[in-house]
Amino acid sequence: MTDFATLPLSPTLLQSLAAMGYARMTPVQAASLPPLLEGRDVIAQARTGSGKTAAFGLGLLARLDAAQNRVQGLVLCPTRELADQVSKEIRRLASATPNIKLLTLSGGIALGPQLASLAAHDPHIVVGTPGRVQELLRKRSLHLSSLRMLVLDEADRMLDMGFTEAITEIIGKTPPQRQTLLLSATWPEAIRAISASIQRDPITVTVDRATAQHDIEQRFFEVEPAQKMDALAHLLRAYQPESALVFCNTRRDTREVAEALDQRGFSALALHGEMEQRDRDEVLVQFANRSCAVLVATDVAARGLDVRELAAVISWELPSDPDVHVHRIGRTGRAGAKGLALSLCTPRERARASAIEARQGAPLAWHTLKPAGGSGKQLALAPMATVCIDGGRKDKMRPGDILGALTGDAGLAADDVGKIDVFATRAYVAIRRNRADKAVERLRAGTIKGRRYRVRRIGG
């Protein structure tokens, strides 16, 4: 049975699941939740979009004692974006359960509010990045002596990003009898080693293997290095995906490829680890709300990216690890939709292609490509543009308030307005591109909930 009602979950958790439209478990949930609810350690291979967050979120919430104001669950994530995404999902799962405090602790944002929240009273659940959690433990502001469950989410990426020492220090502050869940998209030797050192007789869950990606069409194109940019532009024009994620292996390539695409008329933005957090947030918002059609990113930077309908994944260069390729392409073709994965391969990358072929156990689909040169504004821009409002949750602003202002005094039709994201001190709203300037003008002249805010258009 894959019905959530067959699990020993509280009525409030079942109520939240029903409100979220979750009725049946995904394969990774069906395999991992029974041992998690029994208190067993679990190591799971799970790709993005598999339902892994709901699995460990339910495991965390099922073990909580809301009357005890101590940290009972800790989730470590490699990036702030993934930590935010995980926090949102757990909050939704906890929506019908009263008096649960969850705190997100990640770098790139001010430390003061996090310290103040910890001083008020301990949260029940902490979701954070290893560096910030380590910092707060050293300040003795965060206490893990009552921890019941530890989750290492995307453990392979945390190790790749150099968090091994921080994770080891954090684990040393937790009770030895805790329950530990380790999630990883790939299975390098380092993951096996860390599991052996921190888990007790773990149940291994591999049912949601990323290799079983029958809904993804893969195409490989051999190109000379000097032809790569023309080839990439040709693929984007030929396939015309509504949204495309282009993976580069280096930050430098990420910047250069995004700039070259922009010069050729594509709505393209770069995402890499050297960017300021606010800039990263704005890029992610624009890609998710369809103001940016092409996102060029490194593998690490793209972790935590939450775009449910990603039309295509393109590899500018093949990764050296075939498991990374499998994880890349797993971002398209979710929830029963057809996905498209296109890979550029120079002659010197043939060995990497062979490794991918061996990993998937089937021949690669090679296609010929003869791109024509040229540049200029030859492609339609993304359908939406993003407007930033310098007001957010701290101003009691809600998405409905922004929508009301736009469709009221600003005179826009409801279908001119797309996704609205409200952060602590700012909000972003997607507006149909040909109406965005009018929206900015009207919002500047009017008010939102009786107040005036600074309003500007960002991006192209």
Number of strands: 18
Helix residue percentage = 25-40%
The largest beta-sheet arranges its strands as 3-4-2-5-6-1-7
* First and last CA, distance: 49 Å
* Class per helix and strand makeup: alpha/beta
How would you sum up the major sheet?
A: 7 strands, parallel
Our estimate of the beta-strand percent is: 15-25%
Number of helices: 17
Shape: globular
Gyration radius over CA: 23 Å
Mean of pLDDT: 88
Which segments are poorly predicted (pLDDT under 50) over 5 or more consecutive residues? Answer: 208-212
Account of the protein in words:
The chain has 460 residues and is an alpha/beta fold. It is built from 17 helices and 18 strands. The strands form 3 sheets. Strands 3-4-2-5-6-1-7 form a 7-stranded parallel sheet, with helices on both faces. It has a 7-stranded parallel sheet with strand order 10-11-9-12-13-8-14, with helices on both faces. Strands 16-17-15-18 form a 4-stranded antiparallel sheet, with helices on both faces. The chain is globular and about 60 Å long.
